[in-house]
Write a structure and sequence with these properties.
Layout (H helix, E strand, L loop, with lengths): L3 H52 L17 E4 L5 E4 L3 E4 L23 H8 L6 E2 L5 E9 L2 E13 L5 E9 L1 H53 L14 H50 L6 H25 L7 E4 H10 L8 E5 L5 E4 L1 H18 L4 E8 L2 E8 L20 H6 L7 H11 L3 E6 L5 E8 L1 H5 L1
Parallel strand pairs: 9-11
Antiparallel strand pairs: 1-2, 1-7, 3-5, 4-6, 5-6, 6-7, 8-10, 11-12, 12-14, 13-14
Length: 480
């Protein structure tokens, strides 16, 4: 059962089957109840007619019991003895007694057997018989009339004669109509249910197959992309605007991002290999020359290449940790103090750095080492491009702490202001003045700023050079 189509078809069929069976049972119950109530009403009417005759003291032998085939009647006294019954009634069940043969009641005379004088006196007697007004009791049973047995709904009604004798009348109404109607409806349901379920299963299968056809196309294309490792390929996008179309578009967007990521990774590996090749080759050459001619060994040059190689390895390691999602620390860092310490360690720079720190609390939350690395990279970049001056200012603006590093160099062209933050990117004019940078400093600085919830942008300084602005949220703003 691994097919989605099969599971959907079976699930829909089961749901419809349960719903139809429940609805069918409810219909049958309601139909049976209505028809049974109708039969009970007929039986009650027949019973009350006979009870009314008994209340009028009609003799048992003269009782009009109606249509015996439709409404079998049995009349019993207080001792459950049959005093009257339908003429052709041969057997009965579901009433007060299964007997159907009338027996003399005590007294032996039926109502109305008194002499005429008594009748005349009773006609003037205000005490007359009555029929019980209580709701009748209903039971189901059978009756055999002229050899034929059928099911009936019996109504039990009591009647009292003028002598105070209470008689019980059981009159029945046939349930054949109810049974026939229920049987017809049940047969129709049993016949139509399999056909309807087959239609539901088939329609669900076809609709699900049509709906999942684009998914199969997406799967085949992804399988081909995996086999060919060609991330330039894209999955087909259906024209519909449903979930499948959104899945295809999201898949293509993911492939685009993955392609860009893999391409960046390839360029990173290629650029790193290129950048590492130069200091390693230079260091090897110097060591080989020193081995052959010790007096020609350039120790300062070898140390410089080693330092450059060490710095590049450190940058690559930091980038790898940032790409792996390393989170910065949660220590409180005073950017004013950090900037002063960083500048104080750069006494031998080509151009002195002017420092300006605003009053007040200038703390942020993060990693002191990484933030110090950002400030150092920005100062290195400014020193590399400045003509006569480099300045750094630490201020507070609307809940953020700003570190601005400016120089009076040639600046960064507006079209290149985002590209300078890419890895291993150095502008052409920077290459002529570069004393060993690999184009990773600004990329590291922006990644660290982003990990700390801040931003790093470049603009134009008042002196005409570049102005790099590091904006970090203060602890209060970050908490809010």
């Amino acid at each position: 059962m691994r097919s989605v189509r099969a599971r959907a078809a079976i699930g829909a069929t089961l749901v419809v089957a349960v719903a139809l069976i429940g609805a069918g049972l409810a219909v049958l119950m309601v139909l049976r109840g209505n028809l049974t109530d109708q039969a009970g009403l007929e039986a009650e009417v027949a019973a009350r007619e006979v009870a009314g005759q008994l209340a009028l003291d009609v003799p048992y032998a003269d009782l009009e019991l109606g249509d015996e085939d439709l409404h079998p009647v049995q009349v019993t006294d207080e001792d459950r003895r049959v005093v009257a019954a339908s003429k052709d009634l041969e057997a009965i069940s579901g009433t007060a007694t299964p007997r159907v043969t009338p027996v003399p009641s005590a007294p032996a005379e039926s109502p109305g057997d008194d002499d005429d004088d008594d009748d005349d006196d009773r006609s003037d007697d205000p005490a007359r018989g009555k029929v019980s007004s209580a709701d009748p009791d209903f039971t189901n049973g059978t009756a055999t009339i002229d050899g034929g047995t059928a099911d009936y709904r019996f109504a039990r009604v009591e009647g009292t004669t003028s002598d105070g004798v209470t008689l019980t009348v059981h009159a029945g109404a046939p349930l054949a109509t109810e049974q026939e109607a229920v049987g017809t409806v049940r047969g129709a349901m049993l016949t139509g249910l399999p056909v309807l379920l087959a239609v539901v299963a088939g329609v669900t299968w076809l609709v699900t197959r049509r709906a999942l056809r684009p998914v199969e196309g997406i799967r085949r294309e992804l399988s081909a992309i995996t086999a060919s490792e060609d991330l330039r390929r894209r999955v087909p996008e259906p024209d519909s605007r449903d979930e499948i179309a959104r899945l295809a578009r999201t898949t293509n967007e993911t492939l685009t991002v993955l392609e860009a990521s893999v391409e960046r990774q390839r360029r990173f590996v290629a650029d790193a290999s290129h950048e590492l090749r130069s200091p390693i080759a230079s260091l090897r050459t110097q060591l080989e020359v020193g081995e052959a001619h010790p007096e020609l060994l350039d120790v300062p040059g070898a140390v410089a290449d080693t330092v450059r190689l060490q710095g590049l390895a450190t940058d690559l390691l930091l980038l790898a940790r940032l790409d792996a999602g390393e989170r910065p620390g949660r220590a409180a860092v005073d950017l004013g103090t950090l900037v002063r310490e960083e500048v104080s360690q750069r006494a031998g720079d080509r151009i002195p750095v002017a420092v300006s720190v605003a009053d007040g609390v200038l703390e942020v939350t993060g990693s002191r080492g990484q933030l110090s690395r950002v400030v150092g990279n920005l100062l290195d970049n400014a020193e590399r491009h400045a003509e006569h001056s480099v300045a750094v200012a630490v201020t507070r603006e609307r809940g953020d702490v700003l570190v601005e590093v400016t120089d009076d160099g040639s600046g960064v062209p507006e079209a290149e202001r985002e590209r300078v933050f890419e890895r291993f990117v150095r502008l052409d004019d920077a290459r002529t003045r570069d004393d060993g940078g690999a184009g990773l400093g600004l990329a590291i600085a922006r990644d660290v700023a982003a990990r700390h919830g801040g931003t790093l942008d470049v603009g134009t300084a008042p002196e005409g050079g570049a102005r790099f602005t590091l904006r970090l949220p203060a602890p209060a703003a970050r908490g809010a």
